[in-house]
Amino acid sequence: MSRIRVNHRLYQVLKRSETILTSIARYIRFNHLLFAAVFLLSGAGFWLSYEFRFDFDVPAFFNRERLLLLPYMAVFKLALFYVLGMHSTNWRYVGLADLPRLLLFGLIGSCALVVVRVGSNSLIVPKGVILIDFLLTLVLVGGARVGIRFLRETTRAIIGKGESANERQAVIIGAGDSGEMIAREIVRNPRSGLRARAFFDDDKGKRGLSIHGIPVVGGVDDVSAYVEENPVRMAIIAIPSANSAQMKRIYHITKTLNISVKTLPALHEIIQGAEKLRQLRDIDITDLLGREEVHIDDDQVRGLICDRIVVVTGAGGSIGSELSRQILKRDPRRVILIERSENSLFHIHRQLSEMVGDASGTKIVPILCDVRDEIRVRREFERFRPHLVFHAGAHKHVPMQELNSGECVKNNVGGMRTLTRVSHEFGVSSFVLISTDKAVKPRSVMGASKRICELYGQAFSRMSETKFMSVRFGNVLASEGSVVPLFLDQIAKGGPVRITHPEMRRYFMTIPEAVTLVLQAAALGKSGQILVLEMGEPIRIHDMVQQLVQLVGKDPEDIPIEFIGLRPGEKLLEELYTSGEFVLETGHKKIAAYDQPVTDPDKIVAEIDGALELVDGSTDNLEVRRILKKLVPEYTPQPDASVLSDVAEELTERADLTSIPAVRNGRGQT
Questions:
Q1: Over the stretch 592-650, which tens digit does the pLDDT of each residue have?
Q2: Burial per residue of 508-524, b for 16 or more beta-carbon CB atoms within 10 angstroms, e otherwise
Q3: In 617-647, which positions are buried (b, 16+ CB within 10 angstroms) versus exposed (e)?
Q4: Which domains does the chain have, with CATH numbers?
Q5: CB-based contact 457:467 (threshold 8 Å)
Q6: 319-334: per-residue pLDDT in tens?
Q7: DSSP code of 281?
Q8: pLDDT tens-place string over residues 113-147
């Protein structure tokens, strides 16, 4: 009890001292105190150099010399301190980066004494004095700076512990640069309520070392035993470059320990500066599934966007909003957000405006508009004269579009037709369609509609100065309406988690990764190309669900899984290219370009335009699918409960396959 009382009194004294010093600082500029301290310390160092040289018994002659030179040396070092800009460094954050200037400061001061010794006949400055003065300058001026930082951080640590109600003890997995950064922030920010107890790293060369006073006690496999023997409440994974296999291993070790597990973002997401502890987040599915960090030619992408007027359709969606954010970081002249959902447009416009402080509303322009409205779209293109168009607006949910086939075609293909024609009319430089792997040998209305959009862009690329491209990729993790949030909701309710088929597999990538590669593809691609993003290996949905169950801290055996069978329009495995497409080099290992010879583009455009007129006048799902089959021969629709079982066969028999020109592969074969 007495110890607690003493600590409380010390805390109160330090808190009151901090208040008094803050009040004094309002009336006395710190720079005045700083220069006064340097003046006194420089003089003291010069004075003591004689004392040490002569063993505290300075001869009368050298004492007179010392008194004569003392004010000049103090003033000279003060002026030198200012000229070197050492006053501009905040003494509270002094570090190794300040050491070169401190050494230069001491060296020039010593050189001045050498000049006096060599150039004066009446003054004899001993060599020992010059050396000792150099060393004392480093010790006194440099030590004062380090002392101020030490005093500040020690005071903050004691005060922070007094204000922190419940101190949580943590271990850090990873004793590299990121682990050191986290340890430093914990030491400097005691108000976080964290206290790092130990490091764990598989590098045996680091065992027995300490970082900021925190020991490296073992490898990752030793975490479990340490946590069981110590009151640890959190594990921090400080390995931002870890791949999925490493993250899975660490997660499996820590998941049964009944502690909170946090991790750092990827290396490219870490912003240098204070408050790094705020970047800690829970492990999510992207950490366990794992994707390599994407590297792009940012200068090339910036050259595409900088000082350009850029249109993003579907700007409020998952892909459209991330496109808008990444485009805005590359200094466009203006970003035009086209979105037909008022709420989605409101949120993305507000977010982007806060990013750049666009209070005047001139850099980011929200347009509430349906891209099928050709009159409105033409008016806005005439007003802004955009250079680039990224078309991300579309209906995308496969089962929903099977039930609303006509609306899917009218929205997806109709929107593409409007934007393509208007972009051609107003001389847009580049037009990029966001496509999908479901457009390859489609079995769904949505996939077939996207394939028609690709064909429309390829046809127009042969008729227009505008560069029309399509970028094709698979599913994105945690996008709006995707399976991950749906599965998490079912898990939270205790199951069952409904999966269509035990062998269902899908390609996945993160939204930022997909959008980054879309921008790179737009910079690399040529008119008429379909650019396909490298998706890695397809992921088994059943495995993903089990990992999600573990992530939320539940036993997979406690959450039942129900297989409901393939829904209309779904395939067990999606594909990324067709046999008629041949690959071309792009210069980027994660982007492949596919091309198809297009004969008679006018006929293709006319057929698609005519098909749209027919769909506009029809609400019959069967008739819409007949129209799609005519335009996309490889489309093999699946019947749903409302369509007879022989519909697919009937559509195949009745389709007029001669309406689309034959497509040749890279060897010239049909």
A1: 888 777 778 899 999 999 998 888 766 678 888 999 999 999 898 865 433 433 444 44
A2: bbbbbbbbbbbbbbbbb
A3: ebeebbebbbbbbbbbebbbbbbeeebeeeb
A4: 2-160 (no CATH), 164-283 (3.40.50.720), 298-475+510-533+590-635 (3.40.50.720)
A5: no
A6: 999 999 999 999 999 9
A7: E
A8: 888 888 877 778 888 888 888 888 878 777 766 66
